[in-house]
Fold this sequence. Notes:
By secondary structure, the chain is α+β, with helices and mostly antiparallel strands. It has one domain (7-118): YaeB-like fold. The protein is 33% helix and 24% strand. Strand 5 and strand 6 (88-96) form a beta hairpin.
Amino acid sequence: MTADECIIYKGPFFQIEWYYDTDGKSQPYDYFQECDMSQKRKFLMLCQRMGDFGKILDKQKFRNESDGIYAFKPQPDRYLCFFKKGKKIIVTNAFRKQSKKLPKSEKDLALKKMADYLARNPDTEETK
């Protein structure tokens, strides 16, 4: 996956991108590709709203999960992400929600990917 291929949506407020590892693989992108069209549309509409307006006030659709991790919440899926300088949001991992609480393992994975991304892009910092 190249830098151009990782862009999900580019709006006036934010550019939303897939996280990809050093091998060019992206778990959230692969997850998205396996979703049906209805689920894809729900996620893309949330990305468009965030990119165009800079916020989603409905906590049922976007939520601060603490420690710099946020979640796009197109039911029943979750796309964890973080904000970075340059008006970007990086989507780190995706999964199907199976319980009321965010699984610790998924949040830990998002934190690990955020740290990896920021280490590989030292001129960027987490923001928000």
